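Researcher: Next entry in the queue.
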Amino acid sequence: MESTIQNIVVFDIETTGLVSEKNAIIELACCSFDNNLNDIKEYESGIMSIYGNREVQKAALDANGITMEQIKNGREASGVVKELISYFKSLRKGRNKPILAGQNSDKFDIPFLSNFFEFFGEDLTEHVNVDFTFDTMWWGRVKYTESINYKLITLCEKEGIQLVNAHRAINDTRATKDLLKTYIRCLRQEGTFPTKKEEVVRFRETFQF
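Model: Structure for this entry, 209 residues:
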């Protein structure tokens, strides 16, 4: 039976703050791959201007290095929504919508993306499967139970993945994609995962992808 998970979209956003209802997405990037871990395509939004009356927090810009001047000269966010819809449609396979993935994406990026679509009158769930997602922070907690933290850079260092110019969308997305592939290989017993073998086998019997 063909898996319902065919294409996975790893994505990352840069924002003007931490609250999806008050702050704006100002940069977004996606890296997708298929069920055989073959890369498909990337998408970069470029820096966007503020939509609505969204607030800008200095601490957020200090973290991602994006300036107010760049935001003021940024592209219209409505165009990015249209491009994302086209991108997601291109990754749909039959009835199977692409799966979203990211670092801390369940609590942060996906709610922001959903609100972003809603602001422009679109429904994210029409284009991607949000009922099943991959969050590399969650998998990092499973694999490294005693890590000092579960930041992207920490998890990448543990797996020997290079992360350059962190906190910019495309760089974080590429690193997260490589991290997720590493975890998937472990679960498929193509790598090393610190779990008893018999437990991995039982897990795979109920979790196939």
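Model: The chain has a mean pLDDT of 90.
Researcher: Noted, moving on.
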